[in-house]
Every structure is written in C-alpha cells, then in structure tokens.
C-alpha cells in the first residue's frame, strides 16, 4: 500500500515503442499500450516459450492479453504479480539466440525490474546476445513482438511517470455524476447552470460559470 501522505504516480498517455529484440520468425502481435501491468505469466525451458500479460486500462479495469507462444508439459512457469497502481515494471532485459544451428534467433531469457527495486528472473536460458532497456522515470505499459511455438522477439511500450491529477481520478472512477454536476443539463439531481431566461436574474455570475467549465479537458 502507498503511504497516505505520498502522491500517487501514474503513467502518461504519451508512449513510445522500443524494440523489438530477437528474431524474425513467427507472426507479429501487439498488445498495445495501457495504463500499467498487473501481472506477467511466463512459460520457459531452454528459451521463452510463452508470455501472457494482464494490464489495466485508463478506467482502472483489467485487460487480459492473449497468450503469445506455445509451451509443453515440461515447461516451467512463473507468474509475476505487481502491486498496481503502486508498483510498475521499470526495466526489461534478456538474451536472444538461435536454439539450433541455422535456425532463426528466439528470446532465450527475460528479467524484469520493478519500481520497488525487485528483480524477477532471469527466466529461461541465460545465454546469447544481451539486450536491456532500463528506464529513468519511465515504465512499461505494454508489450509487442513475434511468436510461434515460442516467443521469437519482444518489444515494449514505454511511458513517463507523472503525479496523479484530478482528471485521472475522474477517468478511473468514471464519475458521470460529477460531470453532470459540473456541466448540468442531466438527470440525477446534478447542479445546473442557469438557462438564458434566468441569466437576466443572475447576471454576470451565470455567464462566468458557463464560460468557465471546470475539467472540460478531462472528457476530450
């Protein structure tokens, strides 16, 4: 849990895509950017066989990504759970290499670092060409890559961390009643701005409130 006196941090909606690292085999996939990562489930042996990620969208709801890759009954599995929204993935590293002579490279191992300083991994066979993407003030909000019966390549969506604003709270809690209160004109007993025939009675005060609609940018 986050201490009450500390302001919560959230991922910016502006993202960049980095990578992928690995080979050109398999088919491309793209989970897209989200608000954050809640869990990562991996299957691995001599290489990374599959990867499934649970995300969180801008409204705070879970988004379950597809399983990328395959796996066998002999695969080892690991589930990394993060304390979202107080913990983020802040670093990803690994290795890629051919499994057999003449084959295309695949992702052989992965390691994840979180904003709490935890290190998960390496998962897989820690041998081959290394890659890493440490982030200063940034977090992973999505994954992309290529896969077949294993994970052939992996890329990232990265966003900067920033302090939470009231707009974030409105989006997450989906406070339609609050919007009705600010804008008026809806049901549910929300405060309403004076209509044109009432403006003569209220004068400049009503015009001021209509011209200045708080948090309008939250809904664009």
TrEMBL record:
Write the record's keywords in alphabetical order, separated by commas. Lectin
Write down the Pfam families for this protein, in alphabetical order: Jacalin
For this protein, the record's InterPro entries field holds: Jacalin-like_lectin_dom, Jacalin-like_lectin_dom_plant, Jacalin-like_lectin_dom_sf
An example Gene Ontology molecular-function term: carbohydrate binding
Using the record's annotation, list all stretches that form the Jacalin-type lectin domain: 15-160
Listed CDD domains: Jacalin
Top-level lineage group: Eukaryota
Which family does the record claim for this protein? Belongs to the jacalin lectin family.
Q: What is this protein called?
A: Jacalin-type lectin domain-containing protein
- This chain's source organism reads Eragrostis curvula
């Amino acid at each position: 849990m986050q201490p009450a006196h500390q302001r919560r941090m959230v991922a910016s909606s502006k993202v960049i895509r980095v990578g992928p690292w690995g080979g050109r085999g398999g088919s491309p996939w793209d989970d897209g950017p989200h608000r954050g990562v809640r869990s990562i489930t991996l299957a691995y042996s001599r290489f990374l066989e599959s990867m499934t990620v649970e995300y969180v969208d801008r409204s705070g709801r879970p988004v379950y990504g597809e399983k990328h890759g395959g796996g066998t009954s002999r695969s080892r599995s690991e589930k990394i759970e993060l304390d979202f929204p107080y913990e983020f993935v802040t670093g990803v590293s690994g290795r890629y290499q051919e499994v057999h002579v003449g084959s295309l490279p695949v992702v052989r191992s992965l390691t994840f670092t979180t904003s709490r300083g935890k290190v998960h991994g390496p998962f897989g066979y820690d041998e081959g060409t290394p890659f890493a993407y440490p982030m200063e003030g940034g977090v992973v909000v999505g994954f992309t890559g290529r896969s077949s019966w294993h994970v052939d390549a992996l890329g990232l969506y990265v966003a900067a961390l920033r302090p939470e604003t009231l707009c974030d709270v409105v989006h997450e809690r989906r406070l339609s009643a609050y919007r009705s209160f600010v804008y008026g004109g809806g049901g549910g007993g929300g405060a309403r701005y004076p209509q044109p025939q009432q403006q003569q009675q209220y004068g400049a005060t009503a015009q001021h409130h209509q011209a200045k609609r708080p948090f309008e940018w939250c809904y664009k």
